Structure to design on (458 residues):
């Protein structure tokens, strides 16, 4: 069977929550910005130069979000998010121009609860306007999102299982930075300082042959070792 | 001399063939060695069937006793506070998102429990049962680096791990895999997800590109 666009669940086992790591109040604002994050009321620049507020989803690949591992690039590519009817799982392959986001706003009972990212409606935004994050995609959600975005631009469908091999390391890195910030942030120690501290630690050698911890995270079998090292360090700080 | 297992003699067998009548072609004369081999084939086949039945029965029994021990260990682990249990799982190297999956809640819920948030009795037991499963597996089967073991794919070509089995409601398969009594882990993966070969088939591969980063390209055919 040829590869086609995938869905997060099946019709006989609907579970849209598999798309998300966190929504609404569950979102930890200390987590680094990542591909697939959804922000509300972001100031974007229209084609005519005027600025308006839109809900957006971050489109850029995780590796292209930062120039130095800490600071976001000055202009981020995002896609507009708007209300959209729920696409049943068996029809996800037919809607290649959007990223369905069913149950994005679970606290709402109206149709606004279900949204979608529109790949044909792109904007560039400044990181300083990314303040009101309302959803973070799960690892599966990120893989599905990348599969659809790449297919939209290239007509090539790569299975999510292959995306997973590439994205799981950087997703793990975001998890660790979030955990580091949770432990370290205080009134006198900002998110930026905690993030920089964590990234510096990740760039240190983590084994006896000189491999950076950040690189070691690419190997799923090394991740628990790095987590243990990190938690030990955090307890000692 | 009667066969030691069946009690049948060569003479008995030859008498039996001679009473078949003259209208049909008589069976060829059975040499003593051939007859003994025939009896052994029958007997060993029977014993093999018995062994298979016993193997199945002991497999079921082993699974049941796994669950009994797991429940006992869960009760013991459940004496600790939730924050302490979560701290133990963190010290083993589990990711918070995996702990959340294993318990069946969001990462945020786990983080709230870590910091003193209230937890239901059912969920508290779920947290204790993860630690109990780790205790059982490391105690009986000598698994080192238990969190890493839980994250290890069972077979090549599919990302299914013990975390997936456990979170998918099949801790029995986790214990079976850990015990090493299954000859081929593919049996476990097939039991868990029958269509896995097709589902995880990919015509693409991951490679390290010239810039040093992981990238994707079509597989060479």
């Amino acid at each position: 069977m040829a590869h086609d666009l995938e869905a997060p669940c099946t019709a006989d086992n609907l579970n849209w929550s598999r798309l998300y790591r966190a929504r609404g109040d569950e979102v930890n604002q200390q987590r680094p910005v990542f591909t697939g994050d959804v922000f509300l009321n972001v100031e974007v620049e229209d084609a005519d130069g005027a600025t308006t507020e839109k809900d957006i989803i971050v489109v850029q690949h995780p590796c292209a979000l930062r120039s130095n591992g800490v600071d976001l690039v000055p202009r981020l590519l995002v896609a507009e998010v708007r209300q959209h009817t729920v696409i049943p799982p068996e029809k996800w392959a037919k809607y290649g121009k959007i990223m369905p986001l069913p149950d994005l706003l679970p606290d709402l009972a109206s149709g606004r609860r279900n949204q979608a990212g529109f790949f044909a409606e792109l904007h560039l935004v400044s990181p300083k306007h990314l303040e009101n994050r309302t959803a973070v995609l799960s690892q599966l959600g990120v893989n599905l999102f990348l599969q659809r975005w790449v297919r939209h631009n290239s007509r090539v469908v790569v299975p999510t299982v292959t995306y997973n091999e590439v994205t799981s390391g950087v997703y793990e890195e975001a998890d660790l930075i979030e955990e580091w910030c949770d432990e370290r942030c205080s009134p006198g120690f900002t998110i930026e300082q905690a993030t920089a501290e964590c990234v510096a630690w990740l760039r240190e050698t983590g084994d006896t042959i000189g491999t950076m911890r950040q690189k070691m995270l690419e190997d799923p079998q090394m991740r628990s070792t790095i987590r243990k090292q990190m938690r030990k360090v955090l307890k000692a700080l | 001399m009667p066969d030691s297992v069946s009690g049948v003699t060569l003479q008995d067998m030859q008498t039996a063939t001679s009473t078949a009548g003259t209208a049909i072609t008589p069976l060829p004369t059975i040499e003593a060695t051939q007859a003994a081999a025939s009896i052994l084939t029958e007997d060993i086949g029977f014993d093999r069937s018995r062994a298979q039945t016993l193997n199945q029965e002991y497999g079921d029994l082993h699974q049941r006793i796994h669950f009994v021990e797991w429940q006992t260990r869960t009760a013991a682990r459940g004496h600790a506070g939730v924050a302490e249990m979560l701290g133990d799982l963190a010290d083993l190297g589990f990711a918070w998102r995996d702990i959340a999956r294993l318990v069946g809640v969001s990462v945020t819920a786990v983080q709230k429990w870590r910091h003193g948030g209230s937890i239901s009795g059912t969920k508290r037991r779920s947290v204790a049962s993860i630690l109990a499963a780790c205790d059982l597996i490391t105690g009986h089967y000598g698994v080192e680096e238990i969190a890493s073991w839980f994250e290890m794919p069972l077979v090549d070509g599919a990302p299914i791990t013990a975390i997936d089995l456990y979170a998918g409601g099949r801790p029995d398969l986790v214990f079976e895999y850990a015990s090493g009594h299954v000859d081929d882990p593919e049996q476990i993966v097939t039991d868990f997800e029958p269509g896995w070969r097709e589902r995880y088939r990919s015509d693409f591969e991951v490679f390290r590109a010239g810039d040093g980063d992981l990238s994707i390209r079509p597989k060479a055919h």
About this structure: The first helix of chain A runs from residue 139 to 154.
